[in-house]
Every structure is written in structure tokens, then in C-alpha cells.
Amino acid sequence: MISVASYNIRKSVGLDWRRDPQRILEIITEVDADIVAVQEVDRRFGNRETSLSPEMIREMTDYEPISFGVRHQSLGWHGNTILVRQGIEVLDQSTLTLPALEPRGAVMADLQVGAVKLRVIGLHLGLVDLWRRRQAQSVLHHLDVLDESLPTVIMGDLNEWTTEGGCLAHFAEHHKVVAPGPSFHSSRPVVAFDRIITTTDIDVEDSGVHMSELARKGSDHLPIWARLTVGAHGRPEREQPTARDATEPAG
Residue 47 above 80 pLDDT? Predict the structure, then answer.
């Protein structure tokens, strides 16, 4: 069993408008997942300084942050990073630039979790439906052309209002789309913006939204989580991309 979680921390600014990274780390500790995809970890303007310092993460939790930032003071790539429980080995890591009117990106890490190799993508999609669709296609295309296929978890803030359409329809073509429950707005959650998507060789044993009193104050999103079992039957064979497929999809 592998547990994963995703959390848009709003640059560690809570509903009381206090920037409180310690509170965010306490919430992440409450969730107690093996792997956590974090969105909006860095400040948006200026030097894009991270709101969660690697030193504080290591001191307060048993997580190791994966640094994707191109700036020394940043931790994420377009605000996205991944935390892994100490003892999980990071085999490879990379960043993805997503098509958008505004800067958007995703992060990817190949992990060794015990005897299991797992690929994890953390992402934060855009506010406009057309661009969310293109971003979903871009992520899926990137996975298709990788040399090695691995059981894969994609998770993050999709900003998708619909329950089945939009970018979710693209992900659902060859993946399982999990809606743990409404996660936004944390004061009165009614929309399932935050999702977990897996390849078909992963079974989702349980999932949910972490709704502690602290989590309701820490950000405008609530953390979501899932417990997964990686199946032994392997990923289904997919068609090899053609020359036409080898370019970014237009939409």
C-alpha cells in the first residue's frame, strides 16, 4: 500500500491571511502520506522565494523535498513540487512546461518505494477551459513518448469545474480519474478542483479529503489523499506515437 496526497497550499497563506509555513507542515503531517504533490509552494512575484524552506521541511517532518526550482531560493517549478517520505529513493526528476496564456508547468519524479517503481506527476492547471484541455493533452503526450513506462500517479489542482468533461475527459481515456471529494473552498468545500489520476495498473483502495480543523484554516484548498496498490498485471499496451503525434497537440 502506497499513500499519496495533493495540496494547494496558497503560498502558505491561510484564511486568516497569515503566512504560516509551520501550520502547513503540521497539516501535511496530519495527512501522513508517503508522497505529497504540493502546488503554489513558491511566492508568485519578486524572487519567487519558497514559502516552505527545505530546512524547515526536514526539521519539522520526515519528508524530503524534491527541488525543481531554477532559482536558488525557489523549491518548485511554476509553484509545483513533490515531497517524499524519507527512505523513498528519487531515481529521476524533470520538469514539464505546459502550453498556456499564463506560466504553467508540471513536475515529474520516478521513485523507488520499497519494491515498487512509481512515476509521480504534480501539476496545477490553468483557469481557462481551452488551455486546461491543451495542458492535459501535453502531459499525456509527454508520458506517451517516454522510453520507460511505469505505474503513474498524476495529481494536483486541476481547476476543473465539471465532473466528467473538460480536461478530465482527456485523462479518462486511458487512466482512472479519482475525485476524493470537494476540496474547495476550504471554509465550505463544494467543488472537487483537486484530483488524483492513475494508470490502470494501480488500484485505488480508498481516497478522501482531509478536513481537520487546522486544514480548514491553512489554505483555501483542503488536502486530498488516496491509498494505492500497484497491480502486478502491468500497464496495457498503447499504440506507438506516429510522426504526427510527436509534436505538441494543438488542442
Answer: no
SS3 68: coil
CB of 40 closer than 8 Å to CB of 48: no
Residue 100 has pLDDT above 90, yes or no: no
Ordered DSSP codes for 171-238: HHTTSEEE-----BSTTS--B--EEEEE-TTEEEEEEEE---TTHHHH-SB--EEEEEEE-SS-PPP-
CA–CA gap between residue 228 and residue 125 (Å, rounded) = 23
* Nearest CA among 246, 221, 18 for reference residue 124: 221
Distance CA 143, CA 25 (A): 31
For Cα atoms 88, 89, 92, give the angle at the middle one, nearest 5 degrees.
135
At 118, list the grid cell.
512509481
d(CA 200, CA 219): 32
Q: What DSSP designation does 128 have?
A: S
Cell triple for 28: 501535511
Alpha-helical runs (H) found in 21-95: 21-31, 54-60
| 131-157 confidence digits (pLDDT tens) | 999 999 999 999 999 999 999 999 999
The three cell numbers of residue 93 are 526528476
Q: Name the residue with higher pLDDT: 225 or 71.
A: 225
